[in-house]
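INTERNAL AUDIT FORM
Audit reference: QA-55
Scope: verify that the stored structure record matches its stored sequence.
Auditor: D.O.
Record contents follow.
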Amino acid sequence: MIDKCKRVFVQAPALVDFQTVGNPDADKIAILLHGFGQNSEIIINDLKSGLNQDYLWIVPNGVFPMPKKRADGISYKFAWYFYNTQEQSYYIDFTYPCGVLSSFLDSIDDKKRPITVVGYSQGGYLAPFLGQALERTEKVIGINCNYRTDMLKDEFNFDLFSIHGDTDPIVDYENSKSSFTSLIPKISKDSKFISVKDGTHSLSDEFIKELTNIL
């Protein structure tokens, strides 16, 4: 008889490809998490005018590669986790990427500088989980994302922000606002939900302006 497929969690080395932007000697770090099917180069290009030089920006690729064969070769985009929309369940949830990124940050920053986590779309869903996994998190900023309030811990030792376009066709604006509102009893008074009027899922100059104001 053949058993059903089983799963165990094991400790093993992980590879993290990343780029850096800004001042390597800055007193603070910002880690920037791209969206589903993106990579570090794409999100840097989308937000480059908003990457405050007071920070060392660390921009990793997602932990799961999504190679695509093209006529001129293979392109690599990435994901942070996988959610089954039909079964409403996670095939791989936030635990693994948080573990990888926590170890990664510890390995490249022996100064243990304060961290701001900025995540866009799928990276925004991940952002507060990573924030809770890191003791030195000061701020978490999610852009065009929802917060999985049912899965987050009750302790928020950082300021939480959400920036969302009010006409976003990909991640529902009202659900995003509702998820943030439900966290108000748990988060700091400086935390804030910010609406971008006529904003879509794409990162316009208005999103960059709001991000810069928070930083």
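Auditor finding: record pair retrieved intact. The longest strand covers residues 64-70.
Action required: none
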